[in-house]
Design goal:
The complex is a heterodimer of chains A (about 220) and B (about 250).
Chain A: H1 3-20, H2 23-43, H3 47-69, H4 75-80, H5 82-88, H6 93-122, H7 127-155, H8 162-188, H9 194-210, H10 212-223
Chain B: H1 6-15, H2 18-50, H3 64-91, H4 94-126, H5 134-155, H6 159-173, H7 176-186, H8 206-238, H9 243-252
The chains are: A mainly alpha (about 220), B mainly alpha (about 250).
Chain lengths: ~220, ~250
Amino acid sequence: MSLSHAFFAIIRRDLLLALRKRSEIANPLLFFVLVITLFPLGIGARPQLLQAIAPGIIWVSALLAAMLSLDSLFRSDFDDGSLEQIVLSPHPTSVLVLAKIIAHWLVTGLPLLLMAPLLAVFLGMPQSAIGMLLLTLLLGTPVLSLIGAIGVALTVGLRRGGMLLSLLVLPLYVPVLIFAGNAVEMASNGLPVTAQINILMAILLMSLALAPWPTAAALKMSIS
Amino acid sequence: MFLIPDPVGRFFHRMASPPHFYALTEKLMPWLVVLFLLLLLPGLYGGLVLAPPDYQQGDSYRIIYIHVPSAWMSLFIYMVMATAGAIGLVWRIKLAEIVAISSASIGASFTFIALVTGSLWGKPMWGTWWVWDARLTSELILLFLYLGVIGLYGAIDDKRTASKAVAILALVGVVNIPIIHYSVEWWNTLHQGPTVTKMDKPSIHVSMLVPLLLMAAAFKLYYVIAMLQRARLELLQRERNAQWVKAMLEKRA
């Protein structure tokens, strides 16, 4: 089996598994919606304030939803032993891991993107900023999956890795949050955001190129 | 290994052997402590007594003699930790792993001290304990990175595996170091720009600079002392079933 063959086989397998277990797609999405509805309830119905902090609310919720969905990335494969097969295969583990991350993003990151415009309208974000919100989510959520994969790979062998995972992963998410939140806020005030978008793209490309290696190394450590 | 001259290679080989490291650090320790005090006391005296008060800030600027060296140390220790972790990861040297994990909690303490002293100084000077500017935020993230390293090490039972995991995490976190270091130049922040490490000439008077550099050197030595102590303890715990530990205990008893 060639490398590209294996790559796409893993993506197809993971998508198929997710389709069979639809709760894995639905749960992070429901969480995302629920957290965002909590804010207006907690702050009170103050449209001005909500509109001002809408980019931050949506991005923080997306961050938390992405983090909660991370556990499904390697957990079932670790439990049933297919992770060992991936590591043992003749192909480089980092490439196969990248396939798993891409499949995971398609299942958990992409739905957030589709749901976000609705929630932005919920929070009264101006029309002009919604396009920018989608662009930052498109560039940012893959980074969340890529960086998160390192954290999951480090903790997948632990019995109670959940809390630890957030401690490891959230600090590394901060740059994405800063630049993405800032871009949306600038856009809703009608200011240029080329710099933020360029930096987000740079972060995406860097993590796309670099994150699979530590993930593969950490997986090898976790299953040994 | 043809790039490394033989005597250097031999030195590192010997240093990497636990019994030799244990014996050598025991002999070195008093000298390190004396040197530390020789730097610390003049540094403190020069900083707190001899250096003139600042024409704007009065005496409250003197907190820099703690704040600035600990902020430097927070970055320096992270780099040491990541480098030692990488060495441990590649060459599987037990001592490098131990140095990496022994550095983590000391680095976390220095980061914490830098944040606390900075906020104590910020209250009278900026009028606020805390601002969310780039330097402060990235230093706070550094603290979280240290805490993540410590937490991960504690969560994994097998200490050799834990060292591997910690090394990977520390290397990933290195991304944050240039962001902290250049944050005051890249962003227009409330925190002032660099005054000591400028290309032309430091924008700080020599009577204030000399104690600062003495304190910085003293902090470096303090780190070496504290790190070696922790490393010796960690070494004993890991090697408690080894022959050399038993032999040493019997000799002392």
